[in-house]
Amino acid sequence: MTTSSAVPGLRRAARRMLTAAVAGMLLATTPVSGTAGSARAAGYTGPHPGTFTGLGFDTCAAPSDAAMTAWLTSPYRALGIYIGGVNRGCKQANLTRSWVAKQQAKGWRFFPLYVGLQAPCSKYERRIDPARAAAQGRAAADDAAAKARELGLAARSTIILDMERYPAGNAACSTAVLEFSSAWTARLHDHDYLSGLYTDVASAGLADHVAAYSRVGHVRPDLLDFANWDGVQTTTDPKIPSAHWVPKRRMKQYRGDHHETWGGVTINIDSNYLDVELPTTRYRSATVSPGRPWARALWSRVAQALR
Hints:
The protein has 307 residues and is of the alpha/beta class. It contains seven helices and eight strands; from the N terminus they run H-E-H-E-H-E-H-E-H-E-H-E-E-E-H. Helix 4 (133-150) packs parallel to helix 5 (171-190). The model is unreliable at 1-7, 16-39 and 285-300 (pLDDT under 50).
C-alpha cells in the first residue's frame, strides 16, 4: 500500500488505522541534512510534553531503546507515542513502562496520542455513534488515562485525541464529534490529565472546534495539534484565530511521511514543531464526581473561564 504526503489526514489514517505493515521501517540508508542535536540531554520526569518549545517527531510504532539513543544526535527532543484507541494501527512491542522511563532519563519528551472512534461521516469502520457520543468520549478518556498511568506518564500530561479528516456540511456529524471531544476533555480533567486534539487544517474537525471554542457547554481541548504540511516550523495558521489556544497551546505537524537518518538509524516519521507551556490551572477537584456529569461539566466551564 502506498500513501501520499500531500494529504495529512489520509496519510495519518493509513499509518495509524489500517495495518502495522505501514509502520515506520528502518530501511532507507540516505541520511538527511541538518544540524545534529546534543549527544545527550538531562533527564525529565514531569508532565508530557509539559513546557517545551522545539522539534518533535511521531512514528507508527515506538522505536527501540537503541534507536532512541541514536536519535539523540537529531534536532528532535519530543516523540509522539500511540498509547491506545480502537483505531490504533501498529503493534507497540517497545512501548512499556520501562521503555518510557528509559527515554525520560535520556531527556525525551512525549506527546501521547490516542486513536479512538472517528467521525460518523468518515469512512472508518469504527466510528462515533451520534446517540452515544458523549458516553463514548468519556469511555475513551477513561481508557486513555488508564493506559497513560500504566506507562508511568505523570499527571497533567496531555493526551491528544487523533481525529482524522472528515467532510464539512454534515451538522449531525459535527455535533457528534464535538460531543465526543467535549466529554473526552472533561473526563480527562477528572483524571488529572490534560486534553489535546489532533486535526488537519483541511478537515471539518478544525472548523468545528474553532466555531465551538467559546460555546457554552463545550469543553474545549487544552492543546491543538494541527497538520499543515507546508514545511514551515510555526504554530500560526490562517485558519486558527489568533486568540484561540494561546499562549503556547499549539503544535504543528509541518511535514509528513518521510525517512530521516540520525546516528545511523533510519525511521519513517512525521515532523512536528511544538510551542507549549504547562497551564497553571488545575482542573481536578474532589467535588467533581465521575458519576455526576452535570457537576463535571459545570466545573469544566468554571475552570475554562479562569484560563
